[in-house]
Amino acid sequence: MTTDPQDRDERVMTLADEALKIPHSERNNFLKISCIDDPELYREISEVVAWEERMTGFLCRPLIEFIDLEVLDKVFEPGQTVSGRFDILRLVGDGGMGVVYEAFDRKREQRIAIKVAKPGFGRLLTPELQRALQVRHENICMVNEVHTAMTEFGELDFLTMEFLDGETLARKLKQSKLERAEALEIARQLCAGVVKAHQSGILHGDLTPANVILCPRKNGSPRVVITDFGLSTETAGAGEIKGGTPSYMAPDLWRGGKASQASDVFSLGVILNELITGEKPFSATAEGGATVDSSVELKRAKNLPQRWRKAIMPCFRPKPEERCSAEQVLHELERKSFFRTSAGAVTIAAVIALAALAPWIVDAFRSPPIRLAMLPVQGSGGLDQRGRQILDEVAERVRQIQNGKATAAVIPLSKALDKGATTPEEAQKILGATHALQLKLSPETGGLAVEAAVIDLNTMTHVRDYSGHFAEADLSDLSTGLTGLISWGLHLRRRSQPESVIPSAVTVYKSGRDYLDHEPPDFINAQREFEVAEHLDSHSPLPLAGLAEAQIRKYQDAKDKTIQKTAQSWLAKAEALNPDSLRVRLTSGLLHLIDGDYPTALEDYQRVEEIEPRNVEALLGSGFAYETQGKFDRAIADYRRAISIDPKNYKPHEYLGALYYNRGNYAQSEEEFQKDIELAPDRIDAYGSLIGIYTTAFKYEDAEKVYKSLLQRQKQGEDTALMLNNIGVMLAYQGKQKEARDYYQRAVQKDPNRAKYWLNLGDAQRRIGEAANAKDSYQHGLRLIQDQVTKNVANALARARLAYFEARLGHKDEARLQITAAMNYPSKDKEVLLCAVETYEALGDREKALEAAAMATVQTQDEMAHHPDLAGLQQDSRFKSLRGQR
Amino acid sequence: MSNTPLDITVLLRRWHNGDHAAGDELFRLILPELKKIAARFRNRERPNYSLQRTELVNELYSKLLEANDEIDWRNRGHFFAIYTIKLRRFLIDRARKKPTSELLSIEDLPEGIMAGRNRLEVRLAVDRLLDELEKESPTTCSILVARIYFGYEVKEIVKNFDLPQRTVERHLHDGRKWLFERLGKEPTPSGE
């Protein structure tokens, strides 16, 4: 007999498991044989088995549906290529909320890190993060972009950022106490990073040594990089507690306060304290977070060297509003006493000067004055002279395009060569440059392969890249292309000049644009004109942008991926010629909008607005990009600005009207669409929108008026019959059956081949007591619909209409047959259900009518509630409760 | 990134003996576990259901801090047992405050168990009984909670509670049986 309870469990549960697998009749024998020498065991197992039988799976599964954990953790797999661009190399980190991968970016050809939020941890893109994307600083991990990939979990945001090769400060601190000089250098860089972030309006929220990476530089000194800025606050709504690390967490944060600059400063203080003393100043306690009381403060202060005390202690003040700023900490650290022996003093002074200036700069342009260095051309010797020429041209052009108030100074190649600066690092050190242009040329069949990069020397990352092929004859275009790359990448303020093609191509290019602006646009002719224009002026990006735009807008309507691809290739060619052309950026914005990449689209439009703040097309684009991201206030502001700039333009009203409509604000939507119609009475879109608003609100009389004014504008054509019919419908819903009948009659005269018009006419005639006429109309419609059904059997609506006609003509059996057939179709739209309800009501089958009504959407049920033939149903309490339920 | 039972046991001891760094380290080790649980909840959660995972995580950690002074953590299994109890209490308190939130899917409960109760009533009955079970046999209760509330697989429970698989299965069986018996007997509550 087994005595150990765990052994006992093993025997009982194993045998019970076995027993449950075999047929019922054999169980008892099996157990008796298995427990032959242990009657107690037999009894126990039998009980387990009996209970399992009785409980039939009770609580065998969790009470909550869970996602599978294994799947949850593996977002990407090494070897996988994400978004056709990033090769996942390996998993480097797995945190609670997110996973970090090392990856190779095919486009930029560099090693990067990818951070993905685990499914369930929400999407990454927050206003906080968007601000973080714009911060460029040596001590802040550079986040390149937010991308979205479709995965089996749905859409997943991931961040690409610079790959940091180093160890965490946490690890370093564990190994040994730091040398003073080293500690100071780390402290200083850490502070500088926090200062920059706070100036840019972003918070960290979970600053700990585990979030600080020390990357060795070539000269052996560390580069201190803070990671995860703007990520930890991702979920922190108002009043929500953060999942920070207790020992580094400010007491105010722990108690449920929001992350703030002051809470970051507290964490910063804890890290600095640990850097210099090797110890944390506080311990986590039961009250939660670090405890701060004056006795502790005094004790800790004694352990701190005098000069550090002044920098660190103000970080620990219990009240967040009394704490110092990160800037003040940095300032204290950089007092002379600290830096008597430090070589870093000069750079620090520069950081402080910058810190003082930064608020304006950020407001005005987000970047400090730029010093751009031209680096020697890389590539085969024969191209050296040619490359030098190009760079000189670029330098000259960059100077020219800036209007008086230059934001960028150019350091020409000759000067770089004089001083012996040939690499980005040397350009920064020797020339004091902030940015550099690197150009690589290599011969290729029929021309040159060109690779260019605008490099931010602070972070040593590429702001913009270009790679492509130039024919020998077109090499002169390279300098304009590179100039554009620079002014776009560095957000240079430049003169806004009207963009044009050479004189011989002007007429045909303009004609192409006219085709695009025409209502409705004529993409085929536009494309032809742009092709000719491109042939006449192959050095201008405009015809290429026009070709791309024509393709994109065609894609917008046709939803054809290949057309989009073609558009992208036209746009790439245009960008090679001048990426900073406003027309090119507008086109790029449009492409990104249609592609659903709203942040990039917004960037494109904002670049245009930088150059031309009054560009209505850009304002509409940025407004729309904001709108799709749920930033309605900004969207409305952009649309309103567009209206104030160009009050005669209908488009901003149309955008604004649609925004209000989608937000359920029908009154304002109505106002905008009315202005839209006033300004562009010949376009039909706004009429349709206005009618949509009115019918949603059951304002059939207003809708009728809009139809009538539309009818007056409409040239005679096939739409006329439809318009007449619709006016009839609006009248019928108002109860004006005679007037309705007159309009239906006009409709069938215009187009006698629509069963729907005959149906409506018959209904109106029936309602006013013209029974014989009604019968004729129904019979007319019946014949049309019978034709249709024999031609196209798989049509639920035709079946339903057929049933309706039969019902109205008194052929009840046939009607039942047909309506049953119609309802057997798997997908039944609004029209089918409405027609079915009418048929069942005509047949006197309330039960079935209710059944069909229950399948309809709220809107369709609303329509049923106003339908002139459904009075009986409308009074039925079951129908009322059906609507009440929703 | 994986943690062995030893890690946690050692950390627990060090923490209990006043080593606060061990406390932080422990928190780091447990955090992913807690967040996983929170993440799994989110999947079923309605948009307006306000079970905030960070709140949950912090709440639990404070509870553990409180408990640190009272309890001599023996081992990893002991630690996880306490932790599931704390976490369940927290979840149940939240659910009681928000009776409309849907934590349970009870489609597969036998008819007899439903006994005319609605979903909420079954859930509350289960919760109340679990309080009782916790007093009677805390380990069984923790293991059952880990399974039915936090969705742990048996192998995960084996790892976290440091128990043989069949013992875990036995606890699950006993716990389910215990609940089943009592749910059948319990009068259908109406005033709850």
Folded structure, characterized:
- The complex is a heterodimer of chains A (886) and B (192).
- Chain A is an alpha+beta fold and 886 residues long.
- Chain A is 57% helix and 11% strand.
- Chain A has a six-stranded antiparallel beta sheet with strand order 1-2-3-4-6-5, with helices on one face. In chain A, strands 10, 11, 12, 13, 14 and 15 form a six-stranded mixed beta sheet that branches. In chain A, strands 7-8-9 form a three-stranded antiparallel beta sheet.
- The radius of gyration of chain A is 37 Å and the shape is globular.
- The two termini of chain A are 65 Å apart.
- Chain B is mainly α.
- Chain B has nine helices and no strands.
- In chain B, helix 3 packs across helix 4.
- Chain B is elongated.
- The N terminus and C terminus of chain B are likely disordered.
TL;DR?
The complex is a heterodimer of chains A (886) and B (192). With 886 residues, chain A is an alpha+beta fold.
Supply database-style keywords.
heterodimer; A: 886 residues; alpha+beta; 6-stranded antiparallel beta sheet; 41 helices; 15 strands; 57% helix; B: disordered N terminus; disordered C terminus
* Total number of helices of chain A: 41
Mass-distribution shape of chain B? elongated
- Radius of gyration of chain B (CA) equals 17 Å
Strand order of the largest sheet of chain A: 1-2-3-4-6-5
Low-confidence stretches of chain B: 1-6, 42-53, 98-107, 188-192
The overall strand count of chain A is 15
Mean pLDDT of chain B: 65
How much strand of chain B?
A: under 5%
List the secondary-structure elements of chain B in sequence, H or E.
Answer: HHHHHHHHH
Return the structural class of chain A: alpha+beta
General shape of chain A: globular
